[in-house]
Structures are given as C-alpha cells and as structure tokens.
C-alpha cells in the first residue's frame, strides 16, 4: 500500500483497521452504521475519507479515538495503532493515547473550544494531560504551538478567549491544541466545511505544512472533492457504512470506477470550462442506517444496475485501485463516457 | 445596466445598519454596517447570484430586498413600486409576488405541522380558493418539486434534508410569485443532493418563468445557476456583471482571490498561482477607511487606503468598485 | 436602585393604608379609647396630614434622623432594633448558604456523573423531598426531636435551647445554636440547586466543546468539573444571588420564628402581625436594599465566571 508511492518511507503502517463494525441497539433492532471497514495508513500519509450523511465516516474515526460513548453501541473488529490493539482497550489506557499519540479535530470551530477558558490554557491542559510539564512550561509550549499555526501575536493570543477569535483563528487554535503532544496520527472531521473559502485555503495550506514539519499522518474526512484533490495522497469513498472505492488521489480522479464516485464527481458544478445545462445528479438520497438495501447498497440509485447487483459486491483491488462494484473494465469505461457526455451538454 | 425593459427588482443606495451591544444609552453601542449603499437591478427571467463570505452582508441584503428587514437608507423598487414605503396591506399583497427560500430547511418548517398544511398556509391566508381547490394546488405543488402527493400527510422531520428543502420551495411557489430570493438554499445539503436541488431551481425557472436572486458562498453553485453575479465584501458590491465574464476574467482583486481559493477537484490541474489572502474576513463593525478590501489586497496603494472606490462601469453590463481593476477598462 | 427603593416604600405605604383595620391612630390610642383621644393621637403623630406628607415624614424619621418609633410599642425605636437583629439573620443565612452551595454542587455533579443510575435517581428523589418539605414544618419536627423527644440521647444532648447566642459571647454556643437552623434552611435549597445544576450539566455535556475536551484525553470527572461545571454555573449563580439577597433581607422569617432567632425576619413577622407600619416599612426597605444589591453583585459575578459577558 504505502510502498507504492514515490518517496514514501518503507515503514509499517501506523494504523491498521480490519473489519471495523459499529452497530447500535435500537428499538427497531440492531443497526449497522459502519459495516466492515478496513484501511491502512502509512507514516506521513494523508488519507481522505469522502462520504455523505449516513456513510459512517465520522463513526469510523470516532471508533479509532474510542469516543463512541453511547451505551447501546457495539464496536467490533480490529484497530491496530502502531501494532497495538485499540478495540476493547480499557478507557484509562485509551485516554493516554487519546490526545497524545492520536488527536482529533472536529467540524465546527465556533463551538469546539470551551468558552470560559483562554485558548492558551486549553492548549496547556492537553499538554499537561500527557506530559509531566509544569504549568509554566506548558504555557510556554502553548505559545510555541500558537505561533506554529500562524496566529499573529502568539503571547497575546494565548490570553484570548474563543469568542474573541474569528472562525479561522479558532480552527487554527484547535489544530494547535491537537498537535500539542506531537501526535503520530491526526484525525480531522470536516475541518474546513464550516469556514469561508478563503479561510479554508489557509487552513489546508497549514495542514500541508504541518504534515511536513510535524510528520503526522492524517485522516481527513470531507465531502468536498476539491479539498480531496488538493491535499490527499489517497482517497477512500464511503457509502452506507462501507468503503466502495479506494485509490491514490490521482488515480481516483483520472479513472473513477464506482458509479457513486462517478456521480459525486459529476454533481460538482465546474468552476471553469463549459457549463452543463443540467447537473448529472444522482437520483434519490443516501440510505439511513436503518434502511440499507440488500445487495449493493448503492443499487437503487445506480444507473448501471444489473441482476448481479443483488449480491453485495466485495472490495476488489486491481493494481492498487480498489472498487466494490461488479462492472467490468469495459462497462466502467462506457459508464464514464456516459457521465462525461451529460456533463458536456454545454449551456 | 442595459436599460431596455424596466428591471423587475431594483435596489437604489440600500444601506442597513444595526446597533450591537448592551450599553444603557443606545448611542454608545457599536454600529454594524451590514449593507453599505448597494445598488443593483434584476431583469425578469434572469438569475442574479449574490456571492461573498461571512459578514459580507449578502443574507442581510436578501432579507432587505423582500422587506423582511427594514432598510436604514435607500429604496427598493419591485415592478416599479417603491416597496420600502408600503403600508401593511400593500405589503401583504407584495408578498404574493415575491418569496424567499431559506438555508436551513429543518429550521424554516414548523415541525408540528404536516407538510400539506405548511404549503397550504400561504394559500389559506391569502384566500386563494376553496378548501378543495387549495388541496389540489398543494398536491400539484408537491409534484412540481419532485415529491409525491401523499407526502402532504407527513411531518417535516420524516424527510431528508433535500426533501425538506423541496418542501420549502413548494411553499414559496404556492402563491405563484414572480421573484424568489433564495438564501443559501443548498449549503446545508449533501453534495449529491445539492446537485438535485440546483437542477430543480433551474427547471422551475424554465417552466414557471421565475426570476431569482440566488445567495450563496459556493462559487461553483453560483456559477451554475446565475446569469449575472454580484460579489460582495463588507457590505458593498465590489464587482457585478455577467457570470462567465466575471468568473473567467475577474476585475476586482477580491473576486480574483475568491476564485483562486476554491479547491479544484482535479489533482492534475497545473499548480495554480494560488492567492492566499492574509488575515481574516473582517468584521463589519469597524470597516476600514478607503476601500474596504485594502488591508488584504495585494495591490493596495495610498489612494486605496484613503479613497473609497465607487461601482463604475467596466464593460457592458459589468461594474467594478476598484481604483485599479485587474483587466483595465 | 434609588428608584426601586422609593417605589417599593411608596407602594408599601399605600398598601398599608388600604388595609382594613390598620388605622394606626386607633391602635396607638389603645382599646376603649374615646374618639377624642384617637383624634388627639392622630394629630400628635401627624396622622391627619395628607399621605404624601406622612410618607415624607416617615422617610425622614427612618433614614435621616433615625428616630422612627413604633406605632405599637410606644417608645420603641425601630432603627436600633433592626441593627440588633441584622447579625442574627446574617449568621443564619451565611451559614446556611455555605452548606447549600457546597452540597448543591456535590449533588448536581454526582447526579450528572451517574446519570440515570440508582444514585442519580436517589439524589433526585431526595432533592424533591427536600424541596417539598415546608421549612416551618421541618423546623418544628427538628425541634420536636432535638429539643424534647430525643434531647436526652447522646445525639442531641448538645442542642441548646432555642434562641441566638452572639458570636462574641461564645463562638461554640453560637455555632451550636445555629447548626440545626442552618441545616433546616439549607435542605430546601440543596434540593432546588442540585436539580437545576444537574439539568444544566447534562445539557452542557452535549456541547461540542465537551467532545473536544474528551478528545484531549481528559477523564470524565475532569471534563465534568473543569469544563461542564464552569459553563453551567450561570443559572446557579443567578438563583443564588436572588435567594441570598432575599434571605438576608429577612426572607427566612419562618425559620427564624421556629427556632426562636430574633432576626430581621422575626421582626418582620411581628410587625405584620401587629400591623406596625413603621416597622414594616423599615424591614421592607431593608429587604429591598439587599435584593437590589445582590442583583448587582450577581451581574458582577457573571463577568468573573463567563468571559463572554465581559465585553459589553
């Protein structure tokens, strides 16, 4: 996997998830929100997980952090971080990893920080939770981090409260906090979705720079294919709790294979070039975890559905590019051409 | 503007200011200049896209255009009539010809009412027919937006985000308005659903001859639906013109930066000269003197810092508010 | 604040004179007084002057010359009485407040931490009981047990007779005399505050910043006490300010009467029973003052707790 990329370090994967399943006990029975997800992540690699509501992308990442607190949740499968099994780890031990070696940032920076403490103090709190530093040393480290993420006047900013900062600054502060203990793995759940596009550009720039400086691996969840193209080394597309396609970024964009990926890419209105008269939208809506169709979960919405789709397709690799779809290579090419034809029906 | 027919909607020097803060004497509260002397015109049948980032005033402007907010200065003309001075009765009549669709469909639909009631309400209030006629119209509207007639019996929370937005649109269409102001109608939706709703907007425009003011922060979406686009920054329009021209050859440095900031879904695209703007989107409480964009503009000069540029003609139907527009005029 | 005090005192004044059977002249003159005596009394006390003038005179006596005298007990000066009663009320309320704040916070925290378990349910039921018991009933029951029935036993032998022991006279006695009144008064408030805090904590625990705090690797208890608690204090503090102010001003009158403590509350109680206008007036103004002051204090406290409030 990671050995395919030019310039990669031939080290073992930092994260290995095998057949992860997250189910919930509900009145309506057992619901599988994440259904057999497997993935690996190498060092300094940025993996993007793309999906819409109900795809299970957030739960997957919460499972890695051990943050699924619902007493009705059942987490099964294996999550190995640096060779160490995390599923079933007692909370006391997991806490040592959480925020230390694995850190997470969430979607909405406006509400992610505790409103009553200054940001310097909140960053220092995370540092002291994992390192035996004095208050003063932790405060100094907080200021260093604030500077590293590009917040102007770091010493002064450390005294500011979250509400005194803009959305972009708050997200930087959240990133600073997440990086405070030099995590080997950073999980980012839609970190730029709630931000203005010019600020988003700044944050993405920052993430790239930090990967270079801090050497962390990143899993970045997003539904924005533009962000994926800009920043990800590899992409995994999730639908209805499963991974339906996975490849290196360039390969995925050059040759999208799964009809869902085709649909996602097609539904982005182009900013340059010809304007399609109508966007080739995927009909219907993503299924809720309560009502996942039998067989291929994307079947009901798929243009190229056949009888064989009544059986759930497995994720099959073809030269580093995995797809969970029964379409043959030729059929895929035809499907792609069809998609493009619709798009090309210019304004 | 191309002065052929009278524009359907026209804003002349519209400003909207608020006071924020809890000072005992209102005079000492800070003033937010949400919208600052905006003038624009929308011809019938076209779609004007209003684009900008947080604090630019586009949502406020949208609400002023439908008189959901009262303007602090300026006039708004709809079908030639100044709507800012209308009394209550005339305002009610106005509402039948001009409607709004909002961003968060879950928040704009009363969760305790059935969908059918929500769509029928404008018809009932304005007494558009007997009960049977109204019910028939509700069914027709549901079909028009791609839902089923039986959905009228359900409650909003039983629908997905995209479907809820369709319900909101159906409600807006109930009185057969001529103009719809849509405030970020697709921002809260998943990508694949966004495309569906964008298509719906365009289909409805074709079928029903609607005119839109489409407010969004997503440039790609705005490009898809708009015939003309207006870029806003700190309460003012900095550039307005035909969509394709403005977006392919932007004249205002902010438009240029905005376009370059949008991540392109193509890793093979040549590494663009990305313009990363320094600093944050400023707050409309203390707008800087001179050009509102000068603190972040790579091309700012002394003149920009002291003299505020006015929207002036740059090309046919294309105006820019900049002392040194990028493509010269 | 001045506005409020003037308004309240004027209203009390008017209400008093609208109350049937409150003719002060008749009361001062005593029973079986002849109409001439009553008329003479009226003249002497200026009760025949128009109301606004009487009001002004009374305010003058109360606040300026401070020689306001009671209508009921001739010669009794009001202001010194209040001054003497104030420390009693203050002792009672301060002690009770300390107890109820500490226990209210503990109850709220533990209930929220063990939400939906037996501990939580038990605490909430206990709080409900505490809230439902009328303080005078509880007080009398406590007295019954500690003063008479179980007084001989080891548990309650130390309980002194009802009444206040000044601090200066004997700190231990002061403490012993107040322990039971403190607890009785606090029980009600622990119930309310515990429940309110629990509700606020549970709400806060659903916020995004709590998720971030957990992601930092903090333990559940740290998240609860350091992050959730601080953000849930607003209601708690508001209520505390109002309750404390009202109590210091004499609102604990039932407790004071039951335990024989001659505080401002007890004075108010007596004044109302006797319809002694000057005393009523004085205690009402005293109480209003504290309510207004505590409101202002709460506002200041907000700014200390929640930085979002600081920038006006």
Can you offer a commentary on this structure?
The complex is a heterotrimer of chains A (347), B (329) and C (312). Chain A has 347 residues and is an alpha/beta fold. In chain A, the strands form two sheets. Chain A has an eight-stranded mixed beta sheet, sandwiched between helices. In chain A, strands 2-1-4-5 form a four-stranded antiparallel beta sheet. The longest helix of chain A is centred in the middle third of the chain and has 18 residues. The N terminus of chain A is likely disordered. With 329 residues, chain B is an alpha/beta fold. In chain B, helix 4 packs parallel to helix 6 and helix 5 packs across helix 6. Helices cover 31% and strands 22% of the residues of chain B. Chain B has eleven helices and twelve strands. In chain B, strands 6-7-8-3-9-10-12-11 form an eight-stranded mixed beta sheet, with helices on both faces. Chain C is an all-alpha fold and 312 residues long. Helices cover 75% and strands 0% of the residues of chain C. In chain C, helix 5 packs antiparallel against helix 6. The longest helix of chain C is centred in the first third of the chain and has 36 residues.
Mean pLDDT of chain A: 87
Q: Level of helix content of chain C?
A: over 70%
| C-alpha-based Rg of chain A, rounded | 21 Å
Q: Using the CA coordinates, give the radius of gyration of chain C.
A: 24 Å
Shape of chain A: globular
